[in-house]
Design goal:
single chain, 312 residues, 14 strands, TIM Barrel
Length: 312
């Protein structure tokens, strides 16, 4: 029988985390020794809806999604799981030269009806982060039977909480419930626990991060436009949101700029730079568009710029 984590134990952990948050003259606690691993190029893409653009930035049309998958395949990207990324970041088996982790949030039915056949057509696997309390509620959401089918086809299912609440705005008890109960429910319904947690709304604090770790998740994902992952941030792995308004060139700029690290802002138009980087690549959609480029940032080194390049 699958072991369940008790709320009492986890709440005790959350209290201890809250009490030990930064204060004056706090003693350092020795951390577990881990092999030193260089920052890892492992982009994680985040999608929501695949269908008609009814949800604004959260909807990518099937034609755009197919175009993106086709480009990824032609450029040699290969599917990896987020477990694979977490393992490689800690010195485990190396990833392929061009890894890509495709993820979907919330468990919408169009992911099963539309995205799944396209993933199969282009040879990719994906991780589906589901809100356990939403599964099967109405025709727009996937059922547990469909999620079992996804896993049987070699895809992965992760947790996206019970109710999709923002952790930073919730009490300790509610945060514990969202992290633990969603894992227990998915374990019961799918016959095995999810290993990855996706913070709803990208809302993270020390409690949620500590609970995800203690509950048994291997890693957790944030929302930051950066394809570089680090062992020190296993519970804040970065995901690039793919918006419905993005062209293929926008997506390519994230992946190419991030792979080479900190690059100078190119003087030539961004699509010419991309064409030189991949001379055999097909013409990029939106190549006649606006002044998107490679831009320097602080925490997320590369950002999609619409009007010039900020220095912040």
């Amino acid at each position: 029988m699958i072991a369940r984590v008790t709320f009492q134990w986890m709440l005790a952990l959350v209290v201890s985390v809250s009490v030990s948050l930064p204060g004056p003259a706090r003693a350092e606690v020795p951390s577990r020794q881990m092999p030193v691993v260089a920052p890892l190029y492992a982009p994680i893409l985040m999608y929501h809806h695949i269908g008609a653009p009814r949800a604004g930035r959260f909807s990518v049309t099937p034609a755009k999604f197919a175009e993106q998958l086709n480009w990824l395949r032609d450029q040699g990207y290969r599917s990896v799981s987020i477990d694979d990324i977490a393992s490689a970041a800690q010195g485990g088996p190396p990833l392929p030269p061009k890894p890509i982790a495709i993820t979907f949030d919330d468990g919408w039915r169009d992911q099963y009806d539309i995205a799944l056949p396209l993933l199969k057509e282009f040879g990719f696997k994906a991780t589906f982060f589901v809100v356990s309390g939403w599964v099967g509620r109405g025709r727009t959401l996937m059922t547990w039977a469909e999620l079992r089918d996804l896993r049987a086809r070699g895809h992965w299912v992760g947790s996206h909480s019970v109710t999709h609440g923002a952790a930073a705005k919730q009490t300790d008890k509610v945060v514990a419930y969202e992290v633990i109960q969603s894992r227990n429910t998915i374990s019961r319904e799918l016959g095995g626990p999810p290993t990855i947690f996706a913070y709803p709304l990208g809302s993270i604090d020390a409690r949620a991060e500590a609970l995800a770790r203690a509950a048994g998740y291997v890693a957790a994902v944030d929302v930051q436009a950066n394809p570089i992952q680090r062992a020190s941030q296993l519970y804040r792995l970065k995901r690039i949101e793919v918006r419905g308004t993005y062209s293929l060139g926008n997506l390519a700029s994230w992946l190419i700029a991030g792979k080479d690290g900190v690059l100078p802002v190119p003087r030539s138009p961004w699509w010419q730079t991309l064409r030189r980087s991949f001379p055999g690549s097909p013409p990029l959609a939106g190549a006649r568009g606006g002044p998107h480029g490679f831009c320097r940032g602080r925490d997320a080194p590369w950002r999609d710029c619409v009007a010039g390049c900020p220095t912040a």
